[in-house]
Amino acid sequence: MQLLTKAILVVAALALAACNNPRGGDYDEPTGGMGGIGSSALGDPSDPTSIAYFNQTIGDTVNFTVDSSELSPQAMTILRTQAAWLARYPDYQILIEGHADERGTREYNVALGARRAARVEQFLIQEGVSAARLRTVSYGKERPIEVCAEQRCWDLNRRAVTVVSR
Amino acid sequence: MTQISRRPVLGLLAGLALAPRAALAQQPLRIEITEGVIEPVPFAIPDFVPENAAGGEYAASIARVIANNLSSTGLLREIPTSAHIGRIGSFDSPVQFSDWRAISARALITGAVRVNGQQITVKFRLFDVVSGQQLGDGLQLDGSTQAWRRMAHRVSDQVYMRLTGESGYFDSRVVFIAESGPANNRRKQVAIMDQDGENVQYLTDGTALAFAPRFSPTGDRILFTSYETGFPRIYLMDVASRSRQMIGDQPGTMTFAPRFSPDGLSVVYSLSVDGRTDLYMLNVASGQRWQLTQTEAIDTAPSFSPDGQRLVFESDRSGNSQLYTMSLQGGTAYRVSQGQGRYSTPVWSPRGDMIAFTKQHNGRFHIGVMRTDGSNERLLTASYLDEGPTWSPNGRVIMFTREEPGSNASLMSVDITGRNLRRIPTPGPASDPSWSPLLP
């Protein structure tokens, strides 16, 4: 479990690195409006005020079971840690991205991702994060972090990612 | 593009048609679309006769487009030109039917092309080879040379109608999403093409993720969802000018899944806020908006009945995704999907009698059809991922998206009988087709 969580964090951090570098990757065009917020320098992961620290050490991603937006105990633990960090560094704005796996239809998955993002947003607000700092977006099944036709990928793709920027 | 005039030259062409052979008291050639098993009817279409030198450029191409259209129906099978014995030397010469009977053709299409400057004139005739009778009158189409493919599609629609008794679907277009780039960061552009995959044009530049385009009832405007602002928003685009506007946006919400009403004046769509997704309707001209559903659930993928009185949509209000119909006057939504599994993306048929849908069951995805009350469910396809049906203008064919593990999304079509599964040619990976009505 510990290992899996670590793996998820690393993958999520990589995914976010990609988000914050829209001109990177295989082609010249900017990516599909990822994030809704401009890019920010990630900073040094050893700097506890940095985005890199938030992504890697706090953990920016929580996962969901099939067709569900319920938060698992592990997810709540991660979100409480996120809320504490966000309380400490109030300059950061927060965008919650909701995502779905590919085993559903496109528009339903947008709605499902919206439900997941809203669930995380609601939890962070309960944990004291100001609603004014939070926005949500759903990508449905359009932005998987892992691509394979197997359970292990679907499990990782059903997620909400807390993207911080300033 | 729309300057094709349909001018039956009755006096001229019909008068020259061969006199029917009264001795052959045979039924004229007729294809029954609804029959369970159909042996494709063999037909021949020699190159059209060039009536001047400039017409020669189009003589073979027009015949090829028509042949491809007719073969793609699965109702007809072309006898290759290499097997032809007979030759059509002149459009108005009598046809030697014995030459066509000898190669077992049952239908024969002959035509002629003349080009003067930018103007093209196409004439055609359809014959029942067995009885030696002409089916319908000769027909002449005039238009600009740029529209030569459309004229071939018009001829195809005429042939289809004369053989089946139903309107065709060849002179129509499809909007879809052209996909490129890695699967975890897909570039998705709105694109438009002819129904046979030709004349692809890109309507958005791909800088923002876009999906699920839909045609207006007259085919001149489209709706789609794009992440241009970073959030899903609905855009309305005029196809000819490419001008577009964002509609229905409301700060702090996400808007998606837009569909036109049959009168083209309103748009029904989904709006997500605080995790709830409800259906709304917007009058495009006035900007006035109504909320149609109000639940904690996900209500999305709406589709109007052709009379504009009712909607079918998907909702997970019962715990998982199912199909519901409701009156636009308000009131109760009735669940129509009754089988096992999850149902989504319902689309009302142009004839009003059926609903096409995506069904997810036991790890497989299906495209299916049912009556509007949920009865007579029939699954037409099965794969790793089939989704998003759209109806041909005549309600006989369904196009949809298919994705198989490890390969790219592609557009497929299938007859509502479940036969004739085909891949629609596209320049690259493609998804989310929406079929236009027959072009005016």
UniProtKB/TrEMBL annotation, chain A:
GO cellular component: cell outer membrane
InterPro entries linked to this entry: Bact_OuterMem_StrucFunc (IPR050330), OMP_bac (IPR006664), OmpA-like (IPR006665), OMPA-like_CS (IPR006690), OmpA-like_sf (IPR036737), Pal (IPR039001), Pal_lipo_C (IPR014169)
Swiss-Prot/TrEMBL GO biological process terms: cell division
Domain OmpA-like: 51-166
PANTHER family on file: LIPOPROTEIN YIAD-RELATED, STATOR ELEMENT OF FLAGELLAR MOTOR COMPLEX
Keyword Signal: yes
CDD domains membership: OmpA_C-like (cd07185)
PROSITE patterns per the UniProt record, alphabetical: OMPA_1, OMPA_2, PROKAR_LIPOPROTEIN
Protein name, UniProt field: Peptidoglycan-associated lipoprotein
Species classification: Bacteria, Pseudomonadati, Pseudomonadota, Alphaproteobacteria, Rhodobacterales
Description of how the protein assembles with itself and partners: The Tol-Pal system is composed of five core proteins: the inner membrane proteins TolA, TolQ and TolR, the periplasmic protein TolB and the outer membrane protein Pal. They form a network linking the inner and outer membranes and the peptidoglycan layer.
Topology class, membrane: Lipid-anchor
Primary location recorded for the protein, binned into one broad class: membrane
Species annotation: Pararhodobacter marinus
Pfam family membership, one: OmpA
Entry's localization field: Cell outer membrane
Keyword field: Cell cycle, Cell division, Cell outer membrane, Lipoprotein, Membrane, Palmitate, Signal
SUPFAM superfamilies: OmpA-like (SSF103088)
Signal peptide (residue range): 1-17
Keyword hit for Endoplasmic reticulum: no
Protein purpose: Part of the Tol-Pal system, which plays a role in outer membrane invagination during cell division and is important for maintaining outer membrane integrity.
Family statement drawn from the similarity comment of this UniProt entry: Belongs to the Pal lipoprotein family.
TrEMBL record, chain B:
NCBIfam families, sorted: propeller_TolB (TIGR02800)
Subcellular location: Periplasm
Pfam family, one: PD40
Ranges of residues in domain TolB N-terminal: 29-135
GO CC, one annotated term: periplasmic space
Record-given protein name: Tol-Pal system protein TolB
Protein task: Part of the Tol-Pal system, which plays a role in outer membrane invagination during cell division and is important for maintaining outer membrane integrity.
Presence of keyword GTP-binding: no
Leader sequence residues: 1-25
GO biological process, one term: cell division
Family label: Belongs to the TolB family.
Protein's organism: Pararhodobacter marinus
InterPro entries referenced in this protein's UniProt entry, alphabetically: 6-blade_b-propeller_TolB-like (IPR011042), Tol-Pal_TolB (IPR014167), TolB_N (IPR007195), WD40 (IPR011659)
Subunit structure: The Tol-Pal system is composed of five core proteins: the inner membrane proteins TolA, TolQ and TolR, the periplasmic protein TolB and the outer membrane protein Pal. They form a network linking the inner and outer membranes and the peptidoglycan layer.
Keyword Nucleotide-binding: no
Keywords assigned: Cell cycle, Cell division, Periplasm, Signal
Disordered: annotated span: 421-440
